[in-house]
Write a structure and sequence with these properties.
376 residues; six-stranded mixed beta sheet; five-stranded antiparallel beta sheet; 11 helices
């Protein structure tokens, strides 16, 4: 099982330009809204037509077109036999559950075969007893299970899921994730999974492609994307809250102009480093001054059930005149975010009186072993 995609599509103010390959695996597409994740899936499914490029699924050419010419190959969505699950599931409102599941099965199959295939999927997804209901009579979770059953009944060559949990509450999402895990384990082929949630992508996917402004900025095993990101987009999407521009000082020293500090690094600083990142829960309270220890003030605190989020400012920051001028032109919210670093404190690991409070002045260490340094 394999997938090869190399396509370009231009819109006013936006250009999709993606190139990737996948095998029998689950490949996640991770990125912000509007970055091109869903558009890529729609091109593969045949809903959108690229301006140029090639799409090959399991050695069958779905699409081929040279720039400025008519497509040499452009199979219809029905001919492609792909399965694309949208956020809203796209069930036929005038068809019953069993009719919706049967809708994807080729008409060439006999009536007995169609009935057997539908029954098999109804049992698999716990839909027995709901066969005669219409989509409007189903809960959100039941609708999703019908959509998944329809996908598998069609025996597609490739599965594509476009943020399938975005419309569900946390409790329902948790239970339906098990349906999806079971589906992925049974499907022998390529699965593409679109998400903007790193935890969700990490649970389901073998590899992750980071999509930014219409192109893939990096792609690799999920552990590498989270632990060793190579771009600012990957750092942010991996859940890292603290990022800032960086400048090379030496092989083991980096300058962070917006924070007004310099840091010693354990890893070698890339000569053309552009951005620095550190996770909020990696910061730690220090007892005395030392390498990468800074005097900070807690300017804002907020609580969740198990964490306290603290926004820290650097009391001894050295901000140059040009940066001061640039910051003066920012609105107050952006200025606050650029000049502060976020610290996550586990409320279960410290007593109430040890939790930092607004106005506290603290010594905080940025560990040299917990830094991200990227060049793009």
């Amino acid at each position: 099982m394999s997938l090869e995609v190399s396509i370009k599509k231009r819109f006013s103010g936006f250009k999709l330009d993606v190139n990737f390959q996948a095998g029998s695996e689950t490949l996640g597409f991770l990125g912000a809204s509007g970055c091109g994740k869903s558009l890529t899936m729609r091109c593969i499914a045949g809903i959108e037509t690229p301006d140029e490029g090639r799409i090959v699924v399991n050695d069958q050419v779905f699409f081929e077109r040279e720039a400025g010419k008519k497509p040499r190959v452009n199979l219809t969505p029905q001919e492609r036999k792909t399965a694309l699950l949208f956020q809203n599931y796209m069930l036929f409102p005038n068809l019953t559950v069993e009719q919706n599941v049967a809708a994807g099965i080729p008409k060439s199959e006999s009536a007995d075969t169609r009935m057997r295939m539908v029954s098999e999927q109804l049992r698999r997804f716990g839909l027995v007893g709901l066969e005669k209901r219409y989509p409007a009579q189903l809960s959100g979770g039941q609708q999703q299970r019908v959509a998944l059953a329809r996908m598998l009944a069609a025996r597609p060559g490739i599965l594509m899921l476009d943020e399938p949990f975005s419309a569900l509450d946390a409790h329902l999402k948790s239970s339906l994730e098990q349906n999806l895990i079971g589906l992925f384990e049974e499907f022998n082929g390529t699965i593409l999974y679109v998400s903007h949630d790193i935890d969700e992508a990490f649970r389901f996917c073998d590899r992750i492609a980071v999509v930014e402004a219409g192109h893939i900025s990096e792609i690799g095993p999920k552990h590498d994307i989270v632990s060793n990101p190579e771009s600012l987009a990957a750092i942010k999407l991996s859940g890292c809250k603290n990022t800032t521009p960086a400048e090379y000082v030496s092989d083991h020293e980096v300058c962070l102009p917006e924070w007004g500090i310099r840091l010693s690094t354990e890893q070698i600083v890339p000569r053309y480093v552009r951005y620095f990142g550190v996770r909020a829960f990696h910061l730690r309270k220090a007892r005395e001054m030392g390498p990468n220890v800074f005097r900070m003030r807690a300017d804002r605190v907020s609580d969740s059930r198990f964490e306290r989020t603290v926004m820290l400012s650097f009391l001894d920051a050295e901000v140059g005149p040009q940066l001061q001028k640039d910051l003066a032109e920012e609105d107050e919210t952006m200025k606050f975010l650029k000049l502060h670093i976020q610290w996550k404190v586990d409320k279960l690991s410290v007593s109430e009186d040890e939790l930092p409070a607004q106005g506290d002045e603290l010594l905080i260490e940025i560990p040299s072993s917990s830094m991200y340094l990227v060049t793009k």
